[in-house]
Amino acid sequence: xxxxxxxxxxxxxxxxxxxxxxxxxxxxxxxxxxxxxxxxxxxxxxxxxxxxxxxxxxxxxxxxxxxxxxxxxxxxxxxxxxxxxxxxxxxxxxxxxxxxxxxxxxxxxxxxxxxxxxxxxxxxxxxxxxxxxxxxxxxxxxxxxxxxxxxxxxxxxxxxxxxxxxxxxxxxxxxxxxxxxxxxxxxxxxxxxxxxxxxxxxxxxxxxxxxxxxxxxxxxxxxxxxxxxxxxxxxxxxxxxxxxxxxxxxxxxxxxxxxxxxxxxxxxxxxxxxxxxxxxxx
Length: 282
Ligand code: SAM
Prior knowledge:
The longest helix has 13 residues, at 217-229. The chain is 39% helix and 18% strand. The chain is built from 13 helices and nine strands. The protein is α/β, with parallel strands linked by helices. Residues 28-33, 57-61, 63-64, 79-82, 106-108, 125, 127, 130 line the site of S-adenosylmethionine.
């Protein structure tokens, strides 16, 4: 890319924020990354980007957007709810040789699979207030429509995605995410790296679909909701009503799935939740 006329020749992100008077709106979870070294580090996790279309949720002033384009993304669709950012994003688009599309609106209502050609990746510094909901929508989508997701969350959510049985953060999110994808925490980002700094640190997680994702995330979601909704209770208590709703004999269901009725959900391996869900699906 030409450094004088291309994206690298744009004003700095801090200048862009000043020039467009882009104060952060807390209600929309706005915490900006203005350090291009950091946005580049995130974009690198999504490589290779050639031949890939990227959905970027909440581009804000466009730091990550710039990094994705500089790293050679064939197409970036930047979905931003707050219209104040559109002019700053359009300036990037003017220098992106047709590779940037800006969609103004709520990403929760945006159909990535329908609007972006495959192969698709989702890369974002997500708004804290709706980030987990978006993640659950994408992991429970059937079929899985993304090749990779590179997502920044508050640290605690990132830990919940990658947690293993027996660990503090192990729960519903770990079981759902790890049932469809390899999940890893790539790196942590201190709160001071953002403008304005949030109250907590953040981390970037990378999800890549398994060769054989668990096929029925809806049922798995119901099992994990029942089990972790009452996480201090033994499974023979917390899963009782789900067994009744599905005409299963509780003790038989648990035994056939290889689950100790006295176990609590936080110690149960992901394969056990899948076995329980599989017997309902069948
Ligand atoms: N990507 C930018 C960065 O790293 O500097 C901004 C990240 S900021 C944490 C989250 C962004 O998501 C904000 O720009 C906010 O306006 C946007 N946002 C919040 N809710 C949204 C939604 N439902 N759909 C699309 N964008 C949303």
